[in-house]
Every structure is written in structure tokens, then in C-alpha cells.
Known about the structure:
Blueprint (H helix, E strand, L loop, with lengths): L2 H11 L3 E6 L4 E4 L1 H7 L3 H4 L13 H14 L1 E10 L2 E15 L2 E10 L3 H9 L2 H10 L3 E6 L4 E2 L4 H8 L3 E5 L1 H6 L13 H5 L5 H12 L3 E10 L5 E13 L2 E11 L1 H9 L13 E6 L4 E4 L1 H7 L3 H4 L14 H14 L1 E9 L5 E12 L5 E10 L1 H15 L9 H18 L2 E9 L2 H8 L1 H18 L5 E4 L4 E9 L4 H12 L4 E3 L2 E3 L3 E8 L6 H17 L5 E3 L2 H22 L3 E10 L4 E13 L3 E3 L1 H11 L2 H22 L5 E6 L1 H5 L3 H12 L6 E6 H6 L1 H13 L3 E7 L6 H6 L4 E4 L11 H16 L3 E5 L4 H10 L3 E3 L12 H4 L2
Parallel strand pairs: 22-23, 25-27, 27-28, 28-29, 29-30, 30-31, 31-32
Antiparallel strand pairs: 1-2, 1-5, 3-4, 4-5, 6-8, 6-11, 7-11, 9-10, 10-11, 12-13, 12-16, 14-15, 15-16, 17-19, 17-22, 18-19, 20-21, 24-25, 24-32, 25-26
Amino acid sequence: MTGTSLVDQAIDKLPGVFYLFSEHMEIVRWNAGLAAATGIPESAISGMGPLDFIDAADHASVNRAIGRALSQGEATVEARLLSSGEASAPHLFTARLLVSGGTRYIVGHGVDLSDRTEAETALRESEARLRSFIDNTTEGVYSFEPQSPVPVHLPAEEQIERFYDGCIVDCNRAMAAMYGLDDEKQLIGLTLEEAHGSRDDPANLAFLRQVIESGYRVANVESREVDANGRTVWFANSVVGVIEDGALVRVWGSQTDITERKEAEQRLRLSASVFENTHEGVIIMDRDWRIIDVNPAFLRITGFDRADVVGRNSRAFRTGDQDDEFFLRMRQHLRDSGVWRGEVWNRRKDGSVYPQQLTISSVISDSGALTHYVVVFSDITQLKRSQEQLEFLAHNDVLTKLPNRVLLQERLRHAVTQVVRRGDHLVVVCLDLDRFKNINDSLGHSRGDELLAAVGEALTEALRADDTVARVGGDEFVLLFEGIAEADGAARIGDKLLTLFERPFTVDAREIRLTASMGICVCPRDGTDADELLRNAEAAMYRAKEAGRNNYHFYTERLTREAHRRLTLINDMRRGLEHDEFSLVFQPQIALASESIVGMEALLRWSHPEHAQVSPAEFIPLAEDSGLIHPIGRWVLMTACEQARRWLDGGFAFGKVAVNVAGPQIQLGTLANEVNAALEASGLPARYLELEVTESFIMQQADSAISQLQALRERGITLAIDDFGTGYSSLSYLKSLPVQKLKLDKSFVRDIPADSNDMAISAAVVAMAGSLGLTVIAEGVETPAQRDFLREQGCSEVQGFLYGRPAPAEHWPGAFG
């Protein structure tokens, strides 16, 4: 087959209506689509003119378009085709100038617009989708407003002068990228002169005159500009002006970066084949799938050079995303119908994979033999991205990117089934920001949105990876906590969330304090239906608001009362620190060999103004959960060191002062600094201080604990493991810890000598400690029999009611003087 006949057949395969006519208005080439659309036999088309196929009402506009194409190189026009002599569906025609052999030709291509109305209606239905398209399209889109309306009857020079006083009020990311900028905000607010260059630039003036002379309605007007990097860029511009009462109030525009195309046009020969001008990639292959030719669009889309592909079999460019079975089905379909359409994944030269909308057509000779394949494809990356974004928006909140109610319902239903299967608990929290409307009104909705996003981010960071936080309303969030072992763990979750809102949020360099009201329900106790759980949590949230806001309520009244007490005690502890409600009492530690005092343990007490003495077993866990353990722990350490210094100055031989250190104090990583500060401020030598750390926390935070404890021991401080035997220490870890003492928990001492198991455990701990070179002190010693047994086993020290109950500091010098 000759090259000419091959091109003819390729033209026949082009979708829509195609024809080529000379400047003398005589058609010289056409495709089968023209005959099919007009009902005119192909044998009768030769010699006809382009207007012979157009409804008479559209002749004037088509003539103008042909004139523009001849003078400007390209034009578009809408017109109705004649079909069997009657006006038929509207078409969008594109006319391009082609010069060959000194003769000018017009290449015409028409696309059926029958479905346009339906598409426009669908577009209007979703402003969000339109904005998403604008933000993601590769075309630059912008809106420009003059400082004041510009009467269109003014001379062009005066209109241009007033243009330069206006500014860009909106644009998309693609627009900014075309100018070499990273963010569209860098363009918004710029005047025309700041964005496009001097008002004396001839190119800018010519472009603006063209826009004005067109009545502010131009399409595909080319302009040449310089981007932020000093690079010359070419744009194809379409501009539509909004004119009200005879004055221009706004300009909408779009532009496409055609720099590559303009540079390519300089190299193209005027005699280039028609198919080289299409925007779709085109591949022509022989019957064995060997590539004969490709068009420039193919090279642009794929990044390949012509030499990379011509002569090679198309199989060499498969990505592996489609298996052999896929291609077998494709070829079978081609054999059966002569055409295959679908989506495939293909690979560019740089290795990146992208989606294609592909059409493969078989070329059949006059004898009926398969001779070639013509492939036409488009890069649909942007379409895929838009589809993915729509899928994301269907399940996520646009503002915060958190799951929305739809995705929350899915996760909640799944979580409920897991609770039934595992037998644990699911905690559902409905959280509503208090008086957010007032804050929103004062900040403005834009800053209010930023604040909501900041809250969503803070909640997400506070949760575990498997937990869920969703935004289900304006200022309402729902949180799911899965795998909670005990229902009572819900109270700790509520405390943690309230603590989160104690810190201010920062929006636009301004600190804003928020509070939240929360409703909490627990599955399966409060229900096993997703909708029921949400209703219960929401009902509890409203009760929290009714109770004064800035708190949480449980769906059950019993837990609500307990949670209220927890919250009250946490708030009272804060006040107690400020009003000196905390105090220390001391209990002696005795050396069994000499029956002399070797230490005084500092024990924290809280005298509540309403509840009298609150048990440390109740308020210390609350302090740890709420973070108050840090200021309380610093106060205990400082107060104990100051008291020991006074005893030392008074001549009381107390041995060492023992201070309990909570796990969170080590976790913060500042314990060594706090101890050093207390010693320096009080003047107490380090050898008089002993720190007791709980066994379980050391094992959980072994690496962090060892490094901090090692620094304290090097300072000369004695270190002890508190409540030894109640945790899960391993001997390998124990011998690596920088401790000198083990404190045998009172639970193993209480029933000595009645319980043989406790006696065996206590004896084993003492023996093990001795083999490791550690001192053992037993707490909870209340009887001589307990003391005697421990002495027989080799226990070094004891502590308990047998030698004295905890008492204020001033009691002990006289008691042991």
C-alpha cells in the first residue's frame, strides 16, 4: 500500500466529519464520516463546496470562520449539518490552515454536539466538581477584575490604561505553574502590569487591543510572555468578558501552555501529513504489529523519539499491567468487529506509567485482506485523577480530609462485628466544639475553617493508628476507639481528649482556646447497632453540654457519676497545687542487723477541702492520666530534698530520703534535670537521696529508663525498684539496670507466716537479689514474726507499721533521737 492510500485510510478512521478544501472553496478530500452524516454519496461529494453541507442559517458564521482560518491559521465555529437536505445535529468545526505547493488549504474537522446540553447540566449540578476540575486541569484558568467597571465605548487606549489598574482575583495551580510559580496565591492580587509585564510592551498592547476589538470574546489567541525564571513561554488564550450596563466588570480567561507546540511548529515542514496535527497520539502498524509511523502527539505524550519506536513490534512497549489473556481477547475482538476501544496502561520513555483511552482499527484492503492497524489514543491521566478525587470526596470531608459520615458508618459497622468476634470493647465518642459559632463569626469563615482543620489534625495525632476520627457536621466529630480491654477504659479516653483542648490552637499567628463537650458510649454494653451507638453517644454529648460544657458524659448514669468525680478531682488537683493542699508524710526504713534507721520514705498526701483526705490510690492514677503528675512530681521531689536538708542541718541521722518517681516522669526525659535542680536548690548532697521507680514502667521503657537512671546513679543517687515482684521483670534485664536496691512488695509480706507461697516467693527474691549484689527492703512489715522470717532469709531492710506509721517530718527526730 502506498503512503498516500495509507493516509487516506487513516483519515477515514478519524472520528466525526473530516474534509480538506482549497482556498477556492472546492473540496478535494473527505472521510466516510462526512458522507454518513450528510447522507450524500461519496461519489457526489467531489467538486462540492464546504457550504453545501451547512444549513443556510449558519453560512455567514462559517464564512467568517473560514476567513479567520485563512488569515490566522485556525478557527472554530458551531454550525448545523444538512442531512438529506434538512438541518440536523449541531457540530463544532475546527478549521486549520495547511499550505502545500504554494496553495492554501483548509483542514476541517467536525464533532457532533448533540450531547452538549446534558453535559452542561451535569456540570452545573456540582460546583465542587467544577472547582475540582479547574484545580486539576492542565489549562490555566483565571479571573481578572478592573478596579472599577470599564465602559466598553471608550477608546481602546483608555480601556487598556484602566485595565492595568485591575488585578487577578482568582486562578488555579496550573496557571501559576505556567509562570514558573509554586502557588496560585503568588498570582492572586497582582495587577496586570505585575503579572504580564510593562504596560508599554508592544506584545501586551497588541494582545489587549485584539481582546477589546473582539468585544471581549476571543478564543485561541496566542501570546508570548516571560515566566518567573526568565524563560519565554507561549500561551493559547481564550477570553470572555462579563459586561453589565455597557461596562466590563470581569474577565474570565483560560490559557494553555503551547510552548512545546510553538517550538515544534518551527521545525515542521508545511507538507507534513494531516494526521501530524491532531492532539491525539496516532500509531500506524503493519499486520504483524510492527510500528511504521507515529505522529508528533505520540512523541509528546510518550517522550519517545521516532527512532525509538519505528520498526519495532508494539509488544516491546507493553507494561505488564495487562496479561497475555487481555491481548488475546483484544485481538479476537478486532478480528470479529474490526475495532477495539478501551482503557489500557502504557509506559512513557522515562518509565512512568499512565492511562490511555485507546481505539484500534483494522485497515482492510479492497480485496478484504488485513493490511494495517491504526491506533488513536489520548492520555487520560487527568480524568483518572478527577475520578479518584471524586471517590475520595465521596468518603472524606473536603475541609479536614477526615472520614465523613459515610465512611464512619462503614468503619463503625465493621468495628461492631469485631467486638462481637473478639469479645473486647469499642468506645464511641461524639465530640462537639463549644460555642464554635461565636468563634467562627468573630474570626470569619475562612479562619474558622482553618481552626476546624487544626482540630481535626490534633485529634488525629492524639489517636492510635487503628482508631478513627471523622467529621460529621460543622463542628462535630466522632471518634472510634477499637480493642479497648475494659469498659472503664473509656474514662481515660475522655480525660485524654479533654487534656488535648487545654492547649491553645494557633490560626494565623493567633492563639485560640477551645473547649469541647463529649458524649461517650461503649459497645456492646450500650448497643451493638451502628446507628444506635451514634445516637447514644450524641445524646450523652448533649447531656455534657447541658451540664455546663467542657466535659464528657457517659451514656449510663453510673459511669457519668464516676467520670464526673474523676473530672472534679483532676480540676481540684490543679487548684490544690496552687493552694498548698498537698503535703508529705514520712515512714522510716530500718536496717534489720542494727535496728537503726537507714532511710525515710516521702509519701504524698492530699487534704481536700471538701473530701478530707483523698486516697493516693485514687488521685495518683488520675494525675498520671491527666499529666498533672509532672508538676506534682517536681513539687514532691523539691519538698523532700528541702526537708532532708533541714534534718541534716538539725543533726537528725535519717540515712536517705526515698522519693517515688512515676513512670510518666521518666517518659518525659527530663527526670535527671529535675533531680539536679532540686538538689542544687535545696543544697542536699546527692548521696542522701534515693529514688524508687516502679518495676513495670522500667520494663516497658527499658532503653529510655536505663540511660536516665545511669546518669542519676553516676551522680551518687541510690536507685531502687519499687513494688518488685508485681511486674514482669526478666533476670537479663534486671542485671542490666543501674539499681542498687529491690523493694519487696507488701502483697508478699502481708500473709507471712500463714501463707507458705508468700514465704517461698519472699525467700527467693532475697536470695536472687543477694546473688546479684542488690539490697532488699521489704515493705508492709507489721508483726515481729514477719520481721524475724525476713531476717532469717537475709533481708537487709524493712519498712512498715511495726516501726511506725507515716507521720509529718517534725515527728521523727524525736521518735528516733
